[in-house]
């Protein structure tokens, strides 16, 4: 007879090493497949299809993020209400991965910029669904005592993943299909291992609660900040941090090419080399911040520190004339990204409302705090790039300064959270 899944809460039993390491590996794999296009592959394909039109990259990434904004909560809500022998989360991981491979092939074979943009939208929806359900699983399973540790490990993995992805892309940059499918294969294998070896309780006997009408479904897209003020502060802090991060990272390839006066095609190897040093920096930020926040039972100060460190790195890069300053700026940013990814995720699980019944819903809503900046920041970035620019040059200095300001503001906002130290 099927048994109902265990409900979430701070009294959850601790999970074992298999869950922790396969969750870390699965998120790592998804990010290799998902973030590599942002880091380099999209830039290479765009340069082939529309040489010199850097701004198209922002439009493409923005369109994909807007698609997630419009559809994201559906996946979380449907996941909460899914009743299968495989559980609530695994069917979405399986389906998203299979469709995600199709999106990668579509991107590799896109004949024009419009097709490339459509493929990226599909990429966002499919791999984003996989990642979302992996993260919802942590809300279902992790007790408070393990949230910082697991968030540190997954945060580290997801920040290091683009390094491997860019390295793989650099090795096969002459073949459009392999440029996308080699990183994608890493994602498929990692997710498959999690789905196969991490069991999820049969959800067929779980109570569905009230009937889901169109009106109730639409109302689940929003929440009352007055009812959940700490969750609202976490949402806003994440929004501001990722707005700054999106301004910074979307144009990394073009920024380095501009500062070093080389072509975009030559950037892949340089980005990979610079990012290798970021592995240690990200490790310090993610693991150090995650483990210490569990041990000291403090989250907010580490989130603030993450915003300040990223801001310092962005400002350093803003005024960097070449690699001697780009490298330390990148390292500072890596520490900040790693720390924020880990501790803010643990903080989110601490303040997540209605964990037992609507974890997928609220985890999806927090996704707006990432997808909206990813949609809006690339569209706004060309405005900053154009300020004071002349002769075809772009104002990357201003763009990186603004990015740093937003990440610091994101760290400051979480200080208003009251239920968590």
From TrEMBL:
> Gene3D superfamilies under this entry?
MFS general substrate transporter like domains
Coiled-coil regions listed in the entry: none
Q: What highest taxon heads this organism's lineage?
A: Bacteria
| Membrane topology qualifier | Multi-pass membrane protein
Any stretches that span the bilayer, and where are they?
Answer: 20-44, 56-79, 91-110, 116-138, 150-171, 177-198, 235-256, 268-289, 301-320, 326-352, 364-390, 396-415
Against Pfam families, the record matches this protein to: MFS_1
Which segments constitute the Major facilitator superfamily (MFS) profile domain? 1-202, 230-421
The subcellular localization recorded is: Cell membrane
Annotated keywords: Membrane, Transmembrane, Transmembrane helix
* Stored PANTHER family: MAJOR FACILITATOR SUPERFAMILY (MFS) PROFILE DOMAIN-CONTAINING PROTEIN (PTHR23528:SF1), PTHR23528
Protein name, as recorded: MFS transporter
